[in-house]
Design goal:
By secondary structure, the chain is mostly beta strands. The protein is about 5% helix and about 50% strand.
């Protein structure tokens, strides 16, 4: 065995970030999503070999958090589709066109929760995701990442979550076949949420 080999089963990954803080013993309350410190992104495979990433820059949302009775919690989110950014203007334009989001006719994506469950720091938020003229249920697993009071007097909480969906379920069905087999854009798309929400006064 090489001296450079390592038993993966005993390896302990170092944390990527500093440990989260806890400014609240009870995170229950009404919150507004802080868009300037929140990331709503998506990932798709391109040409079967690489991952293309993008994000929405313009959105607003609110949440009611009830830690004692999570079923009373609620989440609402509205995203401006024309704020999508993949870093390539031509690609952004294609995504905004009738081949995909058809921004002129359907300017917003919305999510409205219908059920919220929690087990410790793990939260499952189920709701109706509307893209174009299609509404489908989606369950997003979230992890509570901490609470803090920032230097400006805001009390905020953090959640991270992601879910894979099939874009064709929302009529985002454009594609092109590859000569080597497969397609240009994956049908499965990963949605990622890094949320910072400020507690309302």
């Amino acid at each position: 065995m090489s001296i450079f080999s390592r038993n993966k089963s005993t390896a302990v990954a170092e944390p990527v970030f500093d440990a989260g803080t806890s400014a609240l013993s009870d995170i229950s309350g009404d919150y507004t999503i802080d868009a300037s410190h929140t990331y709503i992104g998506f990932q798709a495979r391109h040409a079967m070999v690489t991952t293309v990433r993008g994000a929405f820059k313009d959105f607003e949302g609110k949440a009611v958090v009830d830690a004692a009775n999570p079923a009373n919690s609620k989440v609402e989110l509205t995203i401006a589709v024309n704020s999508l950014d993949t870093g390539v203007a031509d690609r952004d334009g294609h995504l905004a066109s009738g081949d995909f989001f058809d921004v002129e006719q359907y300017p917003n994506i919305t999510f409205v929760s219908t059920k919220v469950e929690a087990d410790g720091d793990d939260w499952n938020v189920t709701g109706d995701l509307t893209i174009k003229d299609v509404t489908k249920p989606v369950t997003v697993p979230f992890e509570f990442t901490g609470s803090a009071q920032d230097p400006f007097g805001n009390v905020r909480v953090g959640f991270e979550g992601e879910v894979a969906v099939n874009r064709k379920d929302w009529n985002l069905s454009w594609n092109a076949a590859l000569e080597t087999g497969g397609v240009l854009v994956s049908e499965k798309v990963k949605l990622k949420f890094d949320v910072s929400a400020i507690k309302n006064a």
